[in-house]
Design brief:
The complex is a heterodimer of chains A (279) and B (255).
Chain A lengths: L1 H14 L4 E8 L3 H5 L5 E7 L5 E5 L6 H9 L6 E6 L2 E2 L7 E5 L10 H11 L11 H14 L15 H13 L5 E5 L7 H18 L2 E6 L2 H7 L2 E5 L6 E6 L14 H19 L1
Parallel strand pairs in A: 3-8, 3-9, 6-7, 7-8
Antiparallel strand pairs in A: 1-2, 1-4, 4-5, 9-10
Helix pairs in contact in A: 4-5, 4-6, 8-9
Chain B lengths: L1 H27 L10 H10 L1 H35 L1 H15 L7 H8 L3 H25 L3 H9 L4 H39 L4 H10 L3 H29 L5 H4 L2
Helix pairs in contact in B: 2-10, 3-4, 3-6, 3-8, 3-9, 5-6, 6-8, 8-9, 8-10, 9-10
The chains are: A alpha/beta (279), B mainly alpha (255).
């Protein structure tokens, strides 16, 4: 099964250049650590198709966040090569939007102004932000409406529930229309019902906009439900131990999480994680 | 609602209770006016010497305000530097702490040599005693930035200055206003201490003169004036704080 999926990946990357391309990537946080052979991630190789939704799962502290830093250009690999959208990564990538477990909205800004924040910083929006503020605000309102936050634009984040804050945080990540969205356990702090609601919000955003997604999570159901491909990472130092294509038909809805095909996939991944933890 | 009102008037009621108890104790035990004058005697002195008290109070007030303005400027700048650079923090913080623990009254004679008797030493003492809390609070506000948020912005190409201006500075505003409340009261202490040995004017000088002439009601009247001025400024800054950084105090009025 694994071989078979390996083949299909080869076929699809043949069809176009890979979007995210990690080749033998190693990262140590300092040169002393590198000299001692203590790496945060080791020998990571993976590549994704344009528009692919991948999920990375693994035990906590496995270097998932390090992977995020590499994929955004916030960290350069100690060894190996990272390229995104066909270009070698040499610094922070503006075509990326990020959201984390903590919504990190600014409490003194309204929801709308929080979502607009990236446009005040990233070019080309930055230069004409003042002149085109109305246009951008309208764009932010449309985006907020698509995640179900219409009517809350002028509220402050602390007046919103946790799930709403997370929706706003995802909007902030998407406002500059990035080609890649990186999510680091974005739904980890939410209750089960809200989490499943937000899975669908994310699914719908991805279905309409087709950006590339890297979702770091330790919720296996979340990974299987949303992703095209799930990668399993080992304990620190993080390595990619397995790659699993999720061939469940799309569009998926929550019903699918109760099917046998779904639970079998989750169970298989669960077993792999379990054997890492024991090992 | 009733409890809200009670809360508002509680300080007044407490003050009144203390004054009455004070007056009663002085009268019951016939405490000498040279030891502890009665509130009523202090009130009489306040009215009797209203002219000179006002002149001296005005002097103390403006010297304090100049010193305090200096400490806002310097405190904010230093806080900005220390809070935004780890290197500057480790280089400067120990020295500044050492400096802060020097009793400022001990600096007054030196300031007199440099600037002569008058407003100079008072302004500088007020400044030296009050910039530290402002600096520390600005630095704290800047340093407590969530690393995730920093990543979100750095990926977008944000420069350090962008992050400081968009996130760090607004975030440190509540700390800043909190520190102003502390600093203004310290600034009054600085001015008064300095005036006691290095000025011919001001409430500090009035206190010293009244003390040396054993005019205790007048000395206490001076203390009252200082207290009232400091409290009024404190309340002013609390008001500004509540109206500019309401988001940081949401606990009190949110649903």
């Amino acid at each position: 099964m694994i071989e078979q999926t390996g083949m299909s990946a080869a076929v699809s990357s043949y069809a176009g250049d890979p979007f995210v391309d990690f080749r033998d990537v190693w990262l140590a946080y300092s040169s002393e650590l590198a000299d001692r052979g203590e790496f945060a991630v080791e020998d990571i190789s993976l590549s994704t198709r344009e528009g692919e939704f991948i999920a990375i799962v693994g035990p906590s502290g496995c270097g998932k966040s390090t992977f995020m830093k590499l994929a955004t250009g916030l960290k350069m690999p100690t060894r190996g090569h990272v390229s995104i959208a066909g270009q070698a990564v040499t610094g922070p990538l503006k075509i990326v939007g990020m959201a984390f477990q903590a919504p990190t909205l600014l409490p003194w800004r309204t929801t709308l102004d929080n979502v607009l924040l990236p446009l005040e910083i990233v070019e080309p929006f930055r230069s004409n932000f003042k002149a085109k503020r109305e246009e951008y605000a309208a764009r932010a309102r449309r985006l907020l409406a698509t995640v179900g936050l219409q009517g809350y634009e002028d509220q402050f984040p602390w007046q919103l529930s946790g799930g709403m804050q997370q929706r706003a945080s995802i909007c902030r990540a998407l406002i500059h229309e990035p080609r890649m969205l990186l999510l680091d356990e974005p739904f980890g702090a939410l209750d089960a019902f809200t989490r499943e609601e937000l899975w669908n919000v994310l699914r719908d955003l991805w279905t309409t906009q087709r950006f590339n997604v890297i979702l770091v999570t330790h919720d296996l159901r979340e990974a299987v439900y949303l992703a095209d491909t799930v990668y399993v990472m080992s304990k620190r130092p993080g390595r990619i131990l397995a790659k699993r294509e999720i061939e469940l038909p799309r569009p998926r809805d929550l019903e699918i999480t109760y099917t046998e095909a779904f639970t079998t996939l989750v169970y298989e991944l669960r077993e792999q994680i379990g054997s890492i933890r024991k090992g | 609602m009733a409890s809200r009102n009670a809360e508002r008037f509680a300080p007044l009621i407490l003050l009144l209770a203390i004054l009455i108890a004070w007056e009663l104790i002085c009268r019951l035990f016939s405490v000498s006016e040279f030891v502890l004058p009665m509130p009523s005697a202090i009130a009489v002195a306040l009215v009797e010497f209203a002219g000179p008290i006002m002149t001296n109070a005005w002097r103390t007030f403006w010297t304090t305000m100049i010193g305090f303005s200096l400490s806002i400027v310097v405190g904010v700048l230093l806080g900005f530097v220390i809070g935004s650079s780890r290197f500057a923090y480790s280089a400067m913080y120990p020295l500044l702490t050492a400096f802060n623990s020097v009793p400022k009254a001990a600096l007054v004679p030196i300031l007199v040599v440099w600037f002569g008797i008058g407003a100079g030493p008072a302004i500088l003492t007020a400044f030296l005693i009050s910039f530290f809390p402002i600096m520390v609070n600005i630095a704290t506000g800047l340093a407590t930035l969530e690393p995730e948020l920093e990543d979100v912005l750095r990926v977008l190409g944000a420069k350090r200055l962008d992050i400081l201006l968009k996130v760090g500075l607004p975030r440190s505003m509540p700390y800043f206003f909190a520190s102003l409340k502390v600093a203004i009261t310290l600034a009054f202490v600085g001015t008064t201490v300095s005036e006691m040995s290095a000025s011919n004017e001001g409430i500090g000088q009035l206190l010293l003169t009244a003390g040396s002439q054993s005019r205790m009601p007048l000395a206490f009247a001076g203390l009252v004036v200082i207290g009232v001025m400091a409290m009024a400024m404190y309340e002013l800054f609390s008001w500004v704080e509540r109206h500019t950084t309401a988001w940081a105090h949401r606990g009190q009025n949110a649903s």
